[in-house]
Structure formats: structure tokens, C-alpha cells
Amino acid sequence: MEPSQSRSDAVTSDPGHVPLLDKLQAATLLATTPRHVERLVQDGRLSYCRVGRFIRFKLPDLMLYLEQTHVPSQLHENQHHGNEESR
Questions:
Q1: Which of 38, 59, 61, 74 has the fewest CB within 10 Å, making it most exposed?
Q2: DSSP bridge partners of 20
Q3: Residue 74 and residue 1: Cα distance in Å, rounded?
């Protein structure tokens, strides 16, 4: 680390670094409450990292959770099936 560079700058400037989010940031990203995030963790439905006594979340894990819980609209499903039937 260069003398003019702070420790946090050194960590975040690493291209392989995945930023960690706290419970409130994760809740904001998921458009839910911090308590709901706690329940997801307790139920084993949301991956997390333990940093000392703190729980942190990786953005890719939160995005994966959103993908896994995504429910396509009926309209999208009907259009998809309609295309198969016309073949």
C-alpha cells in the first residue's frame, strides 16, 4: 500500500474486491425491512458473511436471491407458450 493511500482505498480499489453490505443496505436493495433480512438469514434463505460479530452481505448473493425468488408475470408466460404453440 502506498503511503498516500488509506486502508479503505486500498481495499476498494482492488478489482477483485466484492463490497460487503450491512443489514440496512441489504434491506434497502431488496426493498424490504432489516427485520425481514434477519428472518431470511435465520431461515437459511439468504447467504451472508460473518465479519467478527457482524453479518455482511455480498451484492452477488443478494442479486442471486432476487433471481431465485423472481416470479414471472402471467402475461410473460402466456406469450412464451403462445410462441411454442404456433410452431
A1: 74
A2: 58
A3: 53
